[in-house]
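=== RUN LOG ===
request id: a7f3
mode: sequence -> structure
chains: 1
length: 158
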Amino acid sequence: MQRQIFFVDFNGWDHHDELLNTQAGMLSILDRGLQGLNQALERIGIWDCVSCFTCSEFGRTLTWNGNGTDYAWGGNVMVMGGPVNGGRIFGEYPLLELGSEYELSGSGIILPTLSVDQYFAELAIWFGVSTSDLLDLFPNLGNFYSVNSGTKPIGFMQ
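=== RESULT ===
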């Protein structure tokens, strides 16, 4: 492995109620942290060697359960860094309304348009994993991406 990994755990995103107020404060903290990291990496001249990414194990439904929303699929992630094809949204941003083509049977669950397998496979390639090993690491990847396509799984990394 030729790249180092630094893991930051920022808990407290499991908002059942007070979502807008709590999330706004947390997003502000995240924004300041990522901005400071960006400035520090540029200052020491390694911005082009670093990628930062977020992940979460769940999303939220569009429907109210009396105390907020329930667990679901279809969350967003962010990636930043010198090797990132940034400033874009990848996948299709869904209509956030009940009955849309992205919503599952009136449950409020949004169906993702990209899989986590694609997301992590693209990061794995950046880390140096060969495409021939991707299906061993991500057994479901073949349902979303052909490792023999000659393209990146999503296209967010250079």
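=== NOTES ===
The longest strand covers residues 59-64.
Residues 19-43 form the longest helix (25 residues).
=== END ===
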